[in-house]
Amino acid sequence: MPATLLVEPTPDDAILRRTMVDCQIRTFDVTNHAIIARFLDVPRENFLPAELASVAYSDMALKLAPEPADTESRVLLTPAVLARLMQAAAIKPGDKILDIASATGYSTAILAGLAKEVVALESSPTRSGMIKANLASIGISAVHVLTGPLADGAAAEGPFDVIFVNGAVESRLDRLFQQLRPAGRLLTIQHLTEAPGAGASHAVRFESQSGRISSVILFDAGASVLTEFRKPAEFVF
What are the residue ranges of helices labelled H in the chain? Predict the structure, then answer.
């Protein structure tokens, strides 16, 4: 069953969330009522360090400092891009979702109110612990939070109806594709490394169909490339 929140928003925060939804998310062609309601309910400031709380509802990607056990920083997607990716995933209440690199757990909290089951995967125990604590702060306890290599996914927990990768990728999606159910969807931002289009990036939806993976470009979007999904450097003589 999708999770419900056990936190009462302050009036000021509720107004900021409403402004975010009306001015950022709705204007980016997000019309799904369940997704909009979830972005109105989940307090984004609870998922940010104190120094970023004042810009929780700004229309910008927010960079988080690296954690002690993880040399890579994380950048939270803008709310509008996150919402539109979720809409493109066509999430059903009975779906099982794998949320990869959710950093502080904000995307996981949104998804927990849309699907039956959500598994969150991060690369360091510190980040995984942060996700658990942040989810608990708003009364969400049913999410399974794992620590491990992002590109490996969570095969033991699969298969999944939807996989989210919170950041840009260049390659190394094969193991994740194998963890999709038939008609399962993987949503991410793809950074192109080869011509034509090298250097460009866009949001993309991959889908498992009859043992094959098809893809559809959704819209232009930029994000930091996650280290584990970088294309390996090619040897040049």
Answer: 11-20, 33-41, 79-88, 106-112, 125-137, 174-177
Q: Which residues pair with 136 in a beta bridge?
A: none
Q: Give bridge partners of residue 163 from the DSSP assignment.
A: 98, 186
CB-CB contact of 220 with 202 (8 Å): yes
Kindly report the pTM of this predicted structure: 0.91
Domains of the chain in sequence order: 11-229 (3.40.50.150)
- First CA to last CA distance, the chain: 56
Q: Are 28 and 83 in contact (CB under 8 A)?
A: yes
**Residue 29: which residues within 8 A CB-CB, separation 6 or more?**
84
Nearest to 100 by CA among 188, 7, 192: 188
What pLDDT tens digit does each residue of the chain (237 aa) get?
A: 676 555 555 558 899 999 999 999 999 999 999 999 999 999 999 999 999 989 999 998 898 877 666 667 889 999 999 999 999 999 999 999 999 999 999 999 999 999 999 999 999 999 999 999 999 999 998 899 999 999 999 999 999 999 999 999 999 999 999 999 999 999 999 998 776 767 789 999 999 998 899 999 999 998 999 999 998 876 555
147 membership: H or E segment, kind and range: strand 144-147
Nearest CA-CA partner of 33 in 114, 134, 147, 117? 114
Structure-token pair, residue 10: 């302050």
Dihedral sign computed on CA atoms, order 181, 213, 101, 56? negative
Cα(217)–Cα(195) distance, integer angstroms: 17
